[in-house]
Design goal:
Heat Shock Protein 90; 5-stranded antiparallel sheet; 3 helices; about 25% helix; HATPase_dom; transferase; Histidine kinase/HSP90-like ATPase domain-containing protein; serine/threonine-protein kinase
Length: about 150
């Protein structure tokens, strides 16, 4: 669990604390209502194949929230969402890329609403999270999790 709840994205950028990826997998999804569940399954299956199931529930939750945000707010109609899983020596990073404009921010939802808690959950569960703008349209929203050097069985 993180030691703090940032109001804004964390500062652990790709070039900080991330050595070259030991493993990585990427999958492209059409913008559909089923995309968050499919992305969650893709990430869980990938991590299981790699023997990296520690914190799997936290990682699945963050994947689902990031993919949901991409579908609802990021990817344009008929667009696509790219999900990437990167395993580094001490950090596991989940990225969700979409073609939408804007920068997602963590918000304090009203108690009367059923939505608006996605990045609040991500910031509470992930060790780090952030947003990176693409050179062209779109962005990458990511969550990172520290892991042990030894894979789980």
């Amino acid at each position: 669990m993180p030691s703090r709840l940032p109001d804004e994205p964390d500062t652990l950028a790709r070039d900080q604390a991330l050595d070259g990826a030991v493993e990585h997998e990427t999958m492209l999804f059409d913008r559909r209502r089923t995309t968050p569940g499919a992305a969650r399954s893709f990430v869980a299956e990938t991590l299981t194949q790699w023997g990296r199931t520690e914190r799997l529930d936290d990682i699945r939750l963050c994947t689902s929230e990031l993919a949901t945000n991409a579908v609802l707010h990021g990817a344009p109609a008929c667009g696509q969402v790219l999900v990437r899983v990167e395993l580094h020596a001490s950090v596991l990073r989940i990225e969700v890329h979409d073609g939408g404009d804007g920068t997602p921010t963590k918000q304090e939802p009203r108690s009367t609403t059923d939505d608006g808690r996605g990045l609040l959950l991500v910031s509470a569960v992930a060790d780090h999270w952030g947003v990176e703008k693409h050179q062209g349209p779109g962005k990458c929203v990511w969550a990172a999790f520290h892991h042990s050097a030894v894979p789980t069985c």
